[in-house]
Amino acid sequence: MQVYRPPIDLEQHREPLLAILRAVAARPDLDRQALHRLLRRHLKATGRERAFFSNDELVYAYRALAGTHGLPPLDPAVLERLRLKPVRTASGVTTVTVLTKPFPCPGECIFCPNDVRMPKSYLYDEPGAQRAGQNAFDPYLQTWSRLAALRKIGHPTDKIEVIILGGTWSFYPETYQVWFVKRIFDALHDFGDGRDRTDEVRAALRDGSLFQPGDERPTPALTVHGDAMALTYNQAVQQLYRAEMDRSRQQAEAVARGQLPRTVLTEYATWDELEAAHRANEDAPCRCVGLVVETRPDHLDEAEVRRIRRLGCTKVQIGIQSLDDEALRLNRRGHTVAQTRRAIRLLRRAGFKIHAHWMPNLYGSTPEKDVEDYARLFADPDFRPDELKIYPCSLIESAELMQRYLEGAWRPYTHEELVGVLAACFRQTPEYCRLTRVIRDIPGTDIVTGNRLTNLRQIVEDGLAARGERSADIRAREIRGQPVAVDDLRLDEQRYATGAGEEIFLQFINEDRRIAGFLRLLLPAGGGPALSPELDGAAIVREVHVYGQALQFGEAARGKAQHAGLGTRLIERAAALAHGAGYARLAVISAVGTRGYYRARGFADGPLYQVRALDGAGSAAD
């Protein structure tokens, strides 16, 4: 097991560090510029050289020295001033993204990149994909190293939302899925308990895996060219990784039969082992408070929805791309709008948060068609996603779309056209939806032609602001790090119909409609058996979220939305609404790490959900 090495010698640099930390603790209004000036006055002596203290050194020193040498006890507000890139945890949780390994994909989308070093649709140069490649796509390494990097720069690591990306999750073998998630939980537990087994895993990978850890950029042995397509992505992946896929499958089967001992590389875990890891995580120092996978509408049925829930998932990213069957056909998406309707209905009935992907500028579309298509997302009750990624179509050299471009049949929108489409989309986005992304994080060097700007959201929002408008979506209204006077918040309730029943969106907002917390309550309509016994005759809490900078479990900070009782008030109001609508029970799709929170609020454990009886209890929240 690797020994932890502190980033700095506290004895050697104690005096300048204390001077910095005392000043930071005494300055609640300290901003990044003031911190920079402070660091310039107290430089780090390294031999004959003098240098700035880094953020990770300051964070380490503060955690080690708080409560001594005249410093106040550890204070989350002080840590927030030292934190690098605070926006990463400004939405209330710390996000860790991991990628699955390259694997065949059921789709043939002409707009998808075909980088065979990555799972389908991802490019090696994307930051998250690079981290995955450097960690050989191993779930343990990706999770542990990302947690270490985030903690190093001052972010809390006790409440973690894990996002699993890469191709179509539902197309990977079930044994791989169970093992992958189990190893993520292993990393959460080891990191929380101070154990570092990353050297052991890296050594095993170097000795026995085709995917190798390290920072060296791999050169693909095969390349897919979009303008010629001599090979498809799947054909190339089969040629490159067939032996590795066969080896992994055979080893897992042999371990399951008891013919081989298990190693850290064996892609095998049982459901019982995963469920034991879930139980251990309920009160672990590093808890999973959300688990997300991404998949396609045509790969979701009731059995798959149950399996995803059993893995511990609470949210599904679903690539719908368009609500126009002709556009789906032209782009060889491989599914229909009817399949999208069915998939979203299934996910909502099961309580999942629905995070849709939508793409303007597809082959065969126009700016006018895109604006109409986006309007259908919220006008039609069968859709109405909770979150949305808007990914304008980018031309990547390895994508088959290159052929349509060279033929003159497709072109990227001009900057003015694209900004116009996005502005129209922002105007039509309701308050209950969160626009998580407005551009894909593709490096400009990978884009053949078209938009290379990564700040499109800011450009669109600035344009709206110049006309006295603003987006109403959740992300644009989050409290984030702003001071919160809880007594100044009011509860706002919005109702809307969906294909699975009536939704009630409860949100605590201030006079400017800035949002401090919200709850999504589904009052299911009849029709068909419940996906799990706990949901039979129950209203469903699909999400409870309180915004503001993420705080550690048990912490409270003056002026912060988190840990101010907003979540409890939202739940009690939801219970009252559900009881008033005639439901005898209230179910919640809890994450593994939030089970204890819901137990403390009257919910009992079921096989896949937690449930609370409604016997007249449940008071209004304001």
Give a written overview of the molecule.
Helices cover 36% and strands 15% of the residues. It is of the alpha/beta class and 622 residues long. The chain has four domains: 14-85, Arc Repressor Mutant, subunit A (Orthogonal Bundle); 93-294, no CATH class; 296-477, Transcription Regulator spoIIAA, CATH 3.30.750; 478-613, 3-Layer(aba) Sandwich (Aminopeptidase). Strands 3-4-5-6-7-8-9 form a seven-stranded parallel β-sheet. A hairpin with a 5-residue loop joins strand 11 (501-509) and strand 12. The relative contact order is 0.09. Mean pLDDT is 90; it is low at 549-553 and 555-559.
Write the layout of secondary structure elements.
Layout: H1 14-25, H2 32-41, E1 44-46, E2 49-51, H3 55-65, H4 76-82, E3 94-99, H5 127-134, H6 139-152, E4 159-165, H7 174-192, H8 198-208, H9 233-256, H10 271-281, E5 287-295, H11 302-310, E6 315-321, H12 325-330, H13 337-349, E7 353-358, H14 367-379, E8 387-390, H15 401-406, H16 415-428, E9 434-437, H17 456-466, H18 474-477, E10 490-498, E11 501-509, E12 515-524, E13 538-546, H19 566-580, E14 585-588, H20 595-599, E15 604-605, E16 610-613
Parallel strand pairs: 3-4, 4-5, 5-6, 6-7, 7-8, 8-9, 13-14
Antiparallel strand pairs: 1-2, 10-11, 11-12, 12-13, 14-16, 15-16
Mean pLDDT across residues: 90
Question: Biggest β-sheet: count, sense, barrel?
Answer: 7 strands, parallel
Q: Describe the global form.
A: globular
Work out the radius of gyration: 25 Å
Notable traits:
alpha/beta; seven-stranded parallel sheet; seven-stranded mixed sheet; Arc Repressor Mutant, subunit A; 622 residues; globular
